[in-house]
Design goal:
- This protein has about 300 residues and is mainly α.
- It is about 55% helix and about 5% strand.
- It is built from 14 helices and three strands.
- The protein has a three-stranded antiparallel beta sheet with strand order 1-2-3, with no helix packed on it.
- A hairpin with a 5-residue loop joins strand 2 (about 165-170) and strand 3 (about 175-180).
- The protein is globular and about 60 Å long.
- One of its GO terms (cellular component) is cytoplasm.
- This is Tyrosine recombinase XerC.
- It is found in: Cytoplasm.
- One of its GO terms (biological process) is chromosome segregation.
Amino acid sequence: MPTDDFKGLFSDYLTHERQYSPETIKAYMADLENFQAFMKDAGIDQLDQVAYRDIRIYLGNLQRDGLSRKSISRHLSSLRSAYNLLLDRELVSENPFNYVKTAKTGLKLPDFFYESEIQSLFDSVQGNDPIALRNRALLEFLYGTGARVSEVRDLAINQVDLTADMVLLRGKGNKDRYVPIGSFCHDALVDYLENGRSQLMAKGHFDDTEHAFVFVNYKGEQLTSQGIAYILDQIVKKSATTLSIHPHKLRHSFATHLLNNGADIRTVQELLGHASLSTTQIYTHLSKEKLRDNYLQFHPHAKQKKERPKD
């Protein structure tokens, strides 16, 4: 099968059968296009002409280009999925990617804020103008619900129940879950929705019925993922912390702080929308302070030295 003919088939498969998020589909399609470019350079016209040695050369090229093990593993996963589809449709006789082992990436602990650092972020978001109200609500929502950036970006007003203090989040593969809204997040959302959002919508000449997205930019348009990341970056620049920030770091902080304060891991799994408990277990690491406190408290040789009795 020609490579160009397969692109549409693979895209439809990821969208309708696997129901992947737009970000995941974009990444998988980019990996496929990258491999197709390699095939063209190598003089391979048909997808069923790819052999194991071709894949090894391709992976070597990725390594020379400076891609991390994690990125290379993602490429392999994308292309293995593509060839599984070809195999299922009987367009190839075997999947050559099944013979390639995925490189071990090692355990990378999630990057998170300590509770004092979170407070520093919130302290930097002051003011009652529409932008300040939106930024406060956005920060409270990300940290207070552990939502993914795509879930926040696409959040509609009818998904937020401020009477019951619950929000309906639409996750990967259109899987829905309910997450409670805490008092800080509740107050920030009420303030923003009553005193900020309408003014931002008006600046873009929108009325409140034009669209239902909760978080909008200064022109009343739906915030993009890049826009959310930019807002968080500006918040950090105004805060006392010099650490980097990204939306997922707040999600990591949400999970870490829940577990550090005694939450059940199954509850955290449900709140995060993880299909597998093993995905959530990476958050069971202890914060550095708690790690040190536990060490000093329980290790016999870490406790304060007692004076040895003199002869």
